[in-house]
Design goal:
globular; alpha/beta; 32 helices; single chain; 43% helix; 5-stranded parallel beta sheet
């Protein structure tokens, strides 16, 4: 949930937060808050998608820091969405669409990518950090687990100020994990401990300062507003005479950050609550105030107050997360008990979207949001057929003709339909509709629109789709055939591709066939080259510097001094400026080619995401794709902007250089050839027609010759700047060692004039031709 303004209010009273040296203890972490915090902390450009490899490294550094400080983390993620929060969730998503659209124009907004959770959970598995997905929102379960383990909660949700957490609550903005320090114990051994500096909030300090009892805090949160009680509902309360009269007058000079005009309601509420000794009396007076207001608002407040009360409830995830033997066993379930255990296990382990639970029990779904061109239809249209197949399998029950949502446990209605939206959804499910209500941005604009999506129940070339209970009974070949039929390509066509990249290539074919607007050749080649580099390299960095690889660092192309230069030259027609920082995308927002690439990247990510979910539901007939090796936004965008300014001959020349700079360039060239050939064959009828690029593996095997400047820089030679050298300069550069005016007799390799190198000229007939390892004279190309 969240209590608007409460976190700011607490921060304004710094005495409420107690400094703490966190080490050698357990903490319970809200997983959604952690992923958001790490993702926003990463501070990268989101325009063309995310550099997932960089985000993976950040997650690994964070979990490694916890291990070094001997901090044992237990992580709980949110599950399905309750009905009472539906309207607020919709408004929040529409604001996110506007934020995503502003990124295209160069704004810096805090966004979350669709694959962020998958990247983090994969890293958590490597570090053996226990995590789990709850049935619904995780806040209450986080508080229960923290009390059961007698440890603190770490998060960024204002609700944790309200839950009675015995060991306190640590906000993320006080958690200085990048500045771990050493402390010396008072023991005789004077042992050193590494710790993380943070600050912890205790309810007792808050209650003592404002003279209110702990039982009144849940009511305070509801009257300040949360996901269940809107600001419109609480406005009537603050205008009531009994509340305004109870507010104590403030003396001149006592104004502070907590009692400015925007925070006046907080002050009124605290003064009003301080006059009550019990929560029951305060709640009765609140009900009287709202008697003349909106119907059922009093019941909403009562229900919201109950969600904060922990009482003596037990955490059902304690044994599941703390017992190694029970780690792979499922906890006691509620509404999920009617589903197959393997499916629930995938849900618990974060391999499936929690929103699929809403599909099963409510036939309601919200597509993921991506940075895209809002003038165009939603990028999720391209992946619609995949979702239809997923919906078809989710809604089939054990018996033919029945559906999962119709005979599920009755308790689901008490949770899903617990507030205002309950009756309409229960009626909808009982009506046995044959479609799923999907909310997505359809046409130009930022408004979410409802669309009735008809699930696919049968494929012409496959037959009826299996239900969740029959999927484990299918052979791997059968499940592979089903997935390939959904994506619309022939299984035998990808036999030459490494197994871990067969599904990504199949998704590229599907993307090419279903994208709107159509994918350009430059966009396709940028994606393929990114996959090749991810396959043959450990990462997209050079050495261990902390900056994102710019193309100027990876590919020493004479025509472009830097990534900024290539971007601005390609978009504005002017000369770029040298820079080692990331591109200033604010200068690119008027270019159609810029918006075209943004939309293409969003469509590819949407297709890849839902194809991955389909693969997971079918129990991974193809190896699970590693998005950190498949997609790097900076890499794709810089490659695209380099290629788009070249004619086909120079594109081929540039790709050769690209592949040469990759370790194991022969393997990289062969992989690129295979993937491009598969896509070309499968997309013969797709416009525009893909050109014949030849086979790069054969070109490189023949001994492709680069420009002299490229060779020298790639080999790491220290070459001076030759901009001041005119074409009459007679000095020479040793081709063997790269030094200027080097006349050592040991250097028998040919020389080239300094003027030629400075101008980026390829070795031509003025010098002897080079021979490859077989002694054959190599051919030369001019860039």
């Amino acid at each position: 949930m969240g209590v608007p303004g409460l976190t700011t209010f607490i921060e304004a009273h710094s005495e409420l937060l107690v400094p703490l040296k966190l080490q050698n203890r357990s903490v319970v972490i809200n997983g959604n808050g952690l992923v958001h915090w790490l993702f926003y902390y990463h501070k990268q450009n989101f325009t063309f998608g995310v550099n997932y490899k960089d985000f993976e490294e950040l997650c690994a550094k964070f979990l490694q820091t916890l291990q070094v400080c001997k901090i044992r983390a237990y992580i709980l993620f949110d599950g399905a969405l309750e009905d009472g929060k539906f309207q607020k969730f919709m408004k929040h998503n529409e604001k996110r669409i506007q934020a995503y659209s502003s990124v295209v124009r160069g704004s810096k907004c805090q966004l979350l990518s669709g694959f962020a959770y998958a990247v983090f959970t994969n890293v958590a598995r490597k570090f053996r950090v226990p995590f789990c997905c709850c049935d619904f929102e995780a806040d209450r379960e986080v508080a229960l687990l923290a009390n059961a383990l007698d440890c603190s909660v770490v998060g960024d949700d204002g609700d944790f100020f309200i839950f009675d957490i015995k060991a306190g609550y640590i906000p993320w903005n006080t958690f200085k994990w990048k500045h771990i320090l050493k402390t010396v114990s008072t023991e005789v051994t004077a042992k050193q401990y590494i710790h993380v500096r943070c600050k912890v909030f205790y309810q007792q300090r808050f209650c003592e300062k404002f003279a209110i009892g702990k039982p009144l805090l849940p009511l305070m949160a509801c009257l300040l507003g949360n996901d269940l009680i809107s600001d419109q509902h609480t406005a009537h309360f603050y205008r009531h005479p009994t509340v305004t009269q109870s507010s104590q007058p403030r003396l001149r000079g006592q104004e502070n950050a907590a009692c400015r005009p925007k925070k006046a309601n907080q002050k009124k509420l605290l003064d009003w609550l301080s006059s009550y000794q019990s929560s029951d009396a305060a709640l009765r007076d609140v009900m009287k105030i709202f008697e003349s207001g909106e119907e059922n608002i009093g019941k909403k407040i009562q229900f919201a107050v109950q969600t904060y009360l922990l009482d003596d409830a037990e955490s059902k995830f304690k044994n599941y997360l703390t017992d190694i033997e029970a780690f792979n066993k499922l906890p006691k379930l509620s509404i999920l008990g009617s589903l197959p255990e393997w499916f629930v296990h995938l849900f618990r382990m974060g391999d499936l979207q929690p929103k699929f639970i809403n599909v099963i029990f409510q036939r309601r779904y919200w597509t993921h949001l991506f940075v895209e061109d809002k003038r165009k239809p939603s990028c999720n249209r391209s992946s619609l057929h995949i979702r239809q197949a997923i919906f078809g399998m989710l809604l089939k029950n054990r018996e033919v003709g029945t559906e999962t949502g119709d005979d599920a446990d009755a308790s689901k209605s008490e949770i899903f339909g617990s507030v205002s939206d309950r009756q309409s959804n229960i009626d909808y499910v009982n009506a046995k509709k044959k479609f799923v209500i999907e909310y997505d941005r359809l046409d130009a604009g930022c408004k979410l629109t409802r669309t009735d999506i008809v699930p696919v129940e049968e494929l012409e070339s496959y037959g009826p789709l299996p239900n969740l209970w029959h999927i484990p009974e299918l052979s791997c070949e059968n499940r592979r055939a089903l997935l390939t039929q959904v994506l619309g390509f022939n299984l035998t066509s990808i036999a030459s591709i490494p197994s871990e990249y067969q599904l990504p290539v199949a998704v590229i074919v599907y993307w090419m066939q279903n994208a709107d607007p159509k994918v350009s050749t430059h966009q396709l080649m940028a994606i393929l080259l990114c996959i090749v580099r991810g396959h043959t390299c450990d990462n997209f960095r050079k050495d261990d510097d902390t900056k994102v690889l710019t193309r100027a660092k990876i590919f020493e192309v004479p025509s472009c001094a830097s990534i900024d230069g290539s971007f601005q030259k390609g978009l504005t027609g002017g000369d770029g400026q040298n820079s080692e920082s990331q591109t200033d995308f604010r200068n690119l927002n008027t270019s159609e080619r810029h918006l075209s690439l943004v939309q293409a990247c969003a469509q590819w990510q949407s297709c890849m995401q839902y194809a991955t979910y389909l693969n997971t539901i079918l129990q991974d007939p193809f190896p699970k794709p590693d998005i950190t090796k498949l997609y790097h936004g900076t890499e794709i965008s810089t490659t695209y902007y380099e290629l788009i300014d070249f004619e086909l001959p120079k594109q081929i020349d540039w790709i050769c250089r690209y592949l040469q700079m990759i370790p194991k360039s022969k393997n990289a060239a062969e992989m690129f050839d295979h993937m491009y050939e598969v896509v070309t064959v499968c997309c013969k009828e797709v416009e525009p027609q893909l050109p014949d690029l030849g086979r790069f593996s054969e070109i490189l095997q023949e001994g492709y010759v680069e420009s002299a400047a490229n060779v020298f820089k790639r080999k790491g030679y220290s070459i001076p700047t030759y901009d001041h050298i005119d074409e009459t300069d007679e000095r020479v550069i040793c081709f063997n060692c790269g030094e200027l005016d080097h006349k050592s007799p040991a250097c028998s390799r040919p020389k080239i004039s300094a003027a030629c190198v400075g101008n980026g000229v390829t070795i031509q007939n003025s010098v002897p031709q080079l021979k490859n390892s077989t002694g054959t004279v190599t051919s030369t190309r001019s860039p």
